[in-house]
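Hey all, sorry for the wall of text incoming. These are the two entities for the joint prediction.
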Amino acid sequence: MSLEPLAFGGLSVVLVGSALAVVLVKNLFHAVLFLALALTGTAGVFLLLDAEFLAAVQLLLYAGGVVTIVVFAIVVTERLVGDRLGQTSRFIGSGMAVAGAVLVGLLLFIRQEPLAEVRPPLDGDVTRAIGDALLTRYVLPFEVLALLFLVTLLGALYFARPED
Amino acid sequence: MPLQAYLILAAVLFAIGLFGVFTRRNTVGILLGIELMLNAVNINLVAFARFNGDAAGFIFTVFTICITVAEVAVGLALVILIFRIRRTATADHLDLLRG
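and here's what came out:
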């Protein structure tokens, strides 16, 4: 139990550092790799919160799937245009002002509320609880999600179809 | 760690993602910022679910993760399509709908 603050601190440093790298590095490809690091770190945070299933989903779908798709898109677009995609930033000052204002607002809000200091003991397996809830109470949204995926796949294929 | 620590971490990540969305010129870079923001929201959901002992937050996280993946797939397909037509990935150049 005493390892938790240590793990949380380490993960926080990795997460904030890689997130800053995602929004600040010039090379788009490096930004995607840092995003993969940030998403893997988030899977670690999920593990700290006893959600092993969600950590696995995070690694499979995000760190695996999303990063692959983004890398693929970068490669395809670079081939289409014929040169490297650099990326520059603009409005650094106003971006920092807006993001800082949102951050301060959120932190003030978090400070205001009385929040739980300790987590309740686990009653049963979280993965089992997720599975039970998905197929009983939340079965309709679950099926709608399947429909959404079908539509998404068709839509993405339609948009990215070969030129005729 | 108290719930507050997780919420503060998520708030910082959200602000960084927001900064990325505002400042990036490249459309793929903007998408990466959106990913960071959604990720911060997931941390919040899981933390609240764990500390309140309610599985609904975990379920919601499953849904947000899935929908984000769908969003990225469609978004990148759009980026590729725009690239084919306009030969650019810079958001400033995409002013087709400007009156």
